[in-house]
Amino acid sequence: MFTTEFLDLPHLARAGGSVQLPGSKSISNRVLLLAALSAGTTTIHDLLDSDDTRVMLDALHALGCTVTPRQVTPGQPVQITGIDGALPNNARAQLFLGNAGTAMRPLTAALAILGGSFEMTGVPRMYERPIGDLVDALRQLGCQIDYLRDEGFPPLRIGQPDFRQLGSTGAAPIQVRGDVSSQFLTSLLMALPLLASTSPQAIAIDVVGELISKPYIHITLELLARFGIRVENHGWQRFVIPAGSRYQSPGSIHVEADASSASYFIALGAIAASAEGQNGIKIEGVGLDSIQGDIRFVEAARAMGAEITGGPNWLHVARGRWPLRAIDLDCNHIPDAAMTLAAMALYADGTTTLRNIASWRVKETDRIAAMAAEARKLGALVEEGAGFIRITPPAAPEDWRAASIHTYDDHRIAMCFSLAAFNPAGLPVRIQDPKCVAKTFPDYFEALFALVQPGAPAPVICIDGPTASGKGTVATLVAQRLGFALLDSGALYRIAGLAASRAGIALQADQADRIAALIATLHIVFAPDQRVLLNGEDISLAIRTEEAGMNASRVSAFPAVRQALLQWQRDFRRLPGLVADGRDMGTVIFPDAPLKVFLSASAECRAQRRFKQLIDKGLSANMHDLLADLQARDARDTQRSASPLQPAEDALHWDNNAERTVEQAVQQVLSWWQQRQPFAAEESAV
Ligand SMILES: Nc1ncnc2c1ncn2[C@@H]1O[C@H](COP(=O)(O)OP(=O)(O)OP(=O)(O)O)[C@@H](O)[C@H]1O
Ligand SMILES: Nc1ccn([C@@H]2O[C@H](COP(=O)(O)O)[C@@H](O)[C@H]2O)c(=O)n1
Predict the structure, then answer these.
(1) What does the pLDDT read at residue 685?
(2) Which alpha helices (H) appear in 117-275, and where do they start and end?
(3) Which single residue of 77, 137, 138, 315 has CA 20 to 30 Å from 264?
(4) What's its catalytic activity (predicted)?
């Protein structure tokens, strides 16, 4: 996951390949709660690992359920042993539920019926998301719920219910509004079987007002049935839970991939020209048989021109009509995925109107306002109303603008606007706070980058300079702040030197071809945890000795060795960008790099730094020898005929002498980088 302050997406041109989607958030959190309320142990496969499922898992653990393992591990199921419809007497807990509506609302209903002493808290935005209609419905039954701040909103305190008023004949139908959030009805449907289990009468729920988001209720009913609760659905207006209903674990259950997440890749297939040798996008884990309402996004995308085929758990999407066709659609049936239509509308042949989307206003943020504000930044013409949005794309390529997209801590805003990187103007798009996608799809950007091809080669920042000038340190930090990949080219020469000496090859010019041939056979891995593996062996420390540095310096003077490592280095170039440190990054390896930096510092300063670095690592060092070695390496690096160490003509120089700190150097490089970006100055502050 990208945890940077922002993520710059270069202009994207093409896409192709296949993507396996994470589990559905809606199904994951429902299944977790149902498993927790049931008798027996449920093994849950393909559970989504996200912010919202994590808060749910933590809450269930706090309530006394056995959760094994405590965190979701890819490919490993999670087992929940449920409470069999009852909590111990005097159960109490404080539950932090983040911004997860799918945790706050159903847990409130279930705990209000089970009884105990609970505080339901979350992030500030959660305290702006209404829950009053659900609380009113639960109070009709005798549940004890108090608002801890504002009337109608979390945080809440839940106490012991008093069901005496229900009497032996049961309650009158419970009334709940259906026109604000379908999560209220879902919450009651999942909580009321706890009451029905001991009730002599069936329990009925009447929906007041038009029921929005019926597809989500459909998911709830399907899953309730899997856990032994068969709810009667009377025309989506009355739901009846039979007396004696009792939660029973199905034993094992698979979570479908998220149909809302699929929408971004369906849109990608519809928008992007196919990558060479590829034919569109294959989406795995969810298909045309999905129980999720957002699968009907497929119909809307087809209406806009996408060519979509599919099976029970897969979809294939290719660009069809281009530009896309503008549509006018009632989106009540696909409230979440409809946001992706707004992104597709940027590529349509006219004005697209999305109606019946008032529920967007009470989601993670006011999504109508947010989508309108951010689409306008790109140059689109946007009109918004209480329950609709109308989008006209920029009239011509030159009307598009490079925008820094504010994401409002809303995963869907971030994912939708990533699609703006396919704009016809060749502009990059900045996504602020990219980690907000953690709510449903932590690795969204990684999945996107695996499928797309940029319009021009991915950007590279070259940082060259003599040994111990601070290149590696600065390059690592710049790469971290931008979310870029890192190439430590010196490590490749160090590996070459180490491998040659281990093979007993003399490090001299007449052996250069043998060393080059050896390089071609090496299996080198730069692991994400910073370890360097050579043919499976961890050589991270072995290549960092001064001797390894000297050997690297020797072999690096041979043109055949440099040639053998050339493509290796260029293959590091990838989305969203690369920071490359070395001696000839700007002059030879990436001559087209948009930013080249040359660091310098006196030999004495560099020797001092290297001395400290070695001592800090617990290695022995001698200042006199270090200075001599360093000067010898400088001489060899600058005087060799093949790619000598020298600044590129267009390099920017940074004197990295003793009075300069690491952070100053990093800030300088980032500031040079910002100056090269097309985003407005006030939007690009790092
Ligand atoms: N202003 C500075 N900029 C960068 N590094 C600094 C600075 N001040 C002190 N250092 C320290 O200098 C040491 C040497 O830096 P580093 O290893 O990044 O150099 P390098 O140029 O990559 O060396 P080599 O080419 O040998 O790999 C590190 O311990 C680093 O923390
Ligand atoms: N692009 C490069 C990088 C390194 N070298 C040579 O390798 C030696 C080790 O590099 P470090 O950056 O890890 O110190 C170095 O002394 C150079 O001789 C190179 O030639 N080109």
Answers:
(1) 40
(2) 132-141, 182-191, 193-196, 214-226, 259-271
(3) 77
(4) CMP + ATP = CDP + ADP; 3-phosphoshikimate + phosphoenolpyruvate = 5-O-(1-carboxyvinyl)-3-phosphoshikimate + phosphate; dCMP + ATP = dCDP + ADP
Q: pLDDT of 632-661, one tens digit each?
A: 989 999 998 889 999 999 999 999 999 999
133 in the same domain as 90? yes
Q: Are residues 622 and 480 in the same domain?
A: yes
Annotated binding site for 3-phosphoshikimate: 25-26, 30, 181-183, 213, 336, 363
Domain range spanning residue 525?
A: 460-683
Which ligand minimizes its atom distance to the CA of 644?
Answer: 2
Ligand 1, atom nearest to 664 Cα: 1
Ligand 1 centroid vs 668 CA: distance in angstroms? 16
Task: Tell me which residue has its CA closest to atom 10 in ligand 1.
Answer: 470
Q: Which residues are catalytic?
A: 336
Ligand nearest to the CA of 599: 1
Q: Which of 214, 236, 254 is the last residue of a domain?
A: 254
Domain end residue (candidates: 235, 254, 273): 254
Stated pTM of the model: 0.86
**Ligand 2 atom at minimal distance to the Cα of residue 640:** 20
pLDDT (tens digit per residue) in 372-389? 999 999 999 999 999 999
Ligand 1 pocket check for 298: Cβ under 6 Å:
no
Ligand 2: which atom is nearest the Cα of residue 550?
Answer: 16
Mark whether 225 and 293 lie in a shared domain. no
pLDDT confidence tier of residue 169, bands split at 50, 70 and 90: low
Tally of residues, the chain: 686
Quote the ipTM score: 0.97
Nearest to 358 by CA among 492, 181, 154, 535: 181
Residue whose token pair is 């999905």 = 290
Q: Are residues 378 and 250 in the same domain?
A: no
pLDDT digits (tens, 9 = 90+) for 207-265: 998 887 788 899 999 999 999 999 999 999 999 999 999 999 999 999 999 999 999 99
For atom 18 of ligand 2, which residue has the closest CA?
A: 553
SS3 per residue for 534-603: ECCEECCCHHHCHHHHHHHHHHCCCHHHHHHHHHHHHCCCCCCCEEEEECCHHHHHCCCCCEEEEEECCH
Residue 1 lies in a domain: no
Q: Which residues are annotated as a binding site for ATP?
A: 465-473
Q: For residue 166, is pLDDT > 90?
A: no
Q: Is the CB of 660 under 6 A from ligand 1?
A: yes
Over residues 280-285, the mean pLDDT reads 96
Q: How far is the CA of 11 from the centre of ligand 2 (A)?
A: 32
Would you call 417 helix, strand, or coil by DSSP?
Answer: helix
CATH number at residue 640: 3.40.50.300
Judgement on whether residues 426 and 545 belong to the same structural domain of the protein: no
Ligand 1 center to residue 606 CA distance, Å? 8
Residues 34-62: tens digit of each pLDDT = 999 999 999 999 999 999 999 999 999 99
Same domain for 304 and 187?
Answer: no
| Residue 422 in domain | yes
**Distance of alpha carbon 631 from alpha carbon 636, whole angstroms:** 9
**CA of 556 relative to ligand 2 center, distance in Å:** 7
When divided into structural domains, the chain yields a total of: 3
C-alpha radius of gyration, the chain, whole number:
30
Residue 194 and residue 38: Cα distance in Å, rounded? Answer: 10
One domain, residues 47 and 69: yes
CB of 609 closer than 6 angstroms to any ligand 1 atom: yes
End-to-end CA distance of the chain: 19
Query: Does some domain include residue 421?
Result: yes
Q: What is the CATH number of the domain that holds 141?
A: 3.65.10.10
What is the reported pLDDT for 684? 44
**Residues in contact with ligand 2 (CB, 6 Å cut-off):** 467, 489-490, 493-494, 549, 552-553, 556, 582-584, 633, 637
581 and 467 within one domain: yes
More confident residue, 164 or 559: 559
Q: Which region, left, alpha or beta, applies to residue 383 given φ > 0 means left and ψ of -120 to 50 means alpha?
A: beta
Domain membership flag for residue 531: yes
Ligand 2 centre distance from Cα of residue 206 (Å): 74
The annotated binding site for phosphoenolpyruvate is made up of 25, 101, 129, 183, 367, 412, 439
For the chain, give the mean pLDDT: 94
